[in-house]
Design goal:
Low-confidence stretches: 305-309
Strand order of the largest sheet: 1-2-3-4-5-6-7-8
Oligomer: single chain
Strand content: 25-35%
Radius of gyration: 26 Å
Mean pLDDT: 92
CATH architecture of the largest domain: Roll
Helix content: 25-40%
Distance between the termini: 40 Å
CATH class of the largest domain: Alpha Beta
Number of helices: 8
Shape: elongated
């Protein structure tokens, strides 16, 4: 059908034959099939795909984007796994042998829904959404391949400094109200706290941690999303909630009080908790400060001995 149509990308050499690091497409809309914790789920997402164009006397002008699109499109009915990503990388390079390509890169981005239990209320749960991205890269010239999984974890952070300042205000208020008294009954203290315990409160805010880990190539059939999410949320102790009743809200307040943290604390917690389980760990946290109009940010980069996410 296209035999008689001109193919400029194939038949014309690129200007100067300059090598191109990456050529491809970004933000291709696709359905995403997931098989996590023995449960198949479906979501919508976007993908990007690239190959390199080497230099040389036979350098091509352009790549065959339709071939890359068809690769992603035909695979969209299969579960997204490390095994599938490795196959797609190999196929992307093979589809561009006539261009001399030896590198390929594929990324996926989508929202993963997981059912999360309430903190204390029995038989209560709700759906939590997690922004997920996958970055897969293969370099046949360097004989290396790596797939990185990144997940956004939303949590609550309460400022340690603000908590200390609030405690001082509370202490001073109690001292002023009971100046000159040598003793105060437990009941009177409890009554005073009921009426004045919130004379000052520390600032807290919704916060976002992005954790990145390389996938285990020895387990080609699963991404391990739930494992990563569970470990990260356990390390932070204050993930945002779904269904909340008063008992759950009180438990959440207690967790925030017991887990005061700056951005530095959050990054270190996550790195310490995840390092025993993954070869490398990257973490970036962002506290959407309620005290300031700007964000507080901290990060730890992985060693990235291989390809970077």
């Amino acid at each position: 059908m296209t035999a008689d149509l001109p193919d400029i990308a194939k038949n014309q050499v690129g200007q100067g034959g300059a090598p191109l690091d990456w050529v491809g497409m970004e933000n291709i809309s696709l359905p995403v099939v997931l098989n996590e914790a023995s449960q198949v789920s479906y979501t919508s997402g976007s993908a990007s795909v690239f190959v390199n164009v080497p230099s040389g006397p036979l350098a091509v002008k352009g790549i065959h984007m339709s071939r890359l699109y068809q690769l992603l499109n035909t695979s969209s009915s299969s579960a997204l796994t490390p095994g599938l990503l490795r196959s797609l990388l190999a196929s992307a390079i093979a589809s561009h042998q006539d261009c001399g390509s030896e590198k390929a890169k594929i990324t996926y981005s989508f929202n993963f829904l997981a059912l999360r239990d309430a903190l204390v209320t029995p038989d209560s749960s709700g759906w939590q959404s997690y922004l997920v991205s996958l970055s897969a890269e293969r370099d046949d010239d360097r004989k290396c391949e790596q797939i990185w999984l990144s997940v956004n974890i939303t949590y609550s952070s309460t400022c340690p400094c603000s908590a200390a300042l609030s405690r001082q205000v509370l202490r001073d208020a109690f001292t002023n109200d009971h100046f000159g008294m040598t003793q105060v009954s437990v009941n009177d203290v409890a009554l005073w706290l009921d009426q004045n315990g919130s004379v000052a409160t520390p600032h807290s805010q919704r916060s976002i941690a992005r954790v990145s880990v390389p996938l285990d190539m020895a387990r080609p059939d699963r991404l391990g999303l739930i494992d990563l999410i569970d470990r990260a949320e356990a390390a932070l102790s204050t993930p945002v909630q779904t269904l909340v009743k008063r008992a759950d809200e009180q438990a959440f307040a207690r967790l925030n009080g017991a887990n005061l943290m700056y951005v530095e604390d959050a990054v270190r917690r996550l790195s310490t908790a995840l390092t025993p389980h993954y070869k490398e760990v990257g973490v970036k946290v962002r506290h959407l400060e309620s005290l300031h109009a700007h964000d507080a940010v901290a990060s730890i980069s992985p060693a990235r001995g291989g390809l970077a996410p």
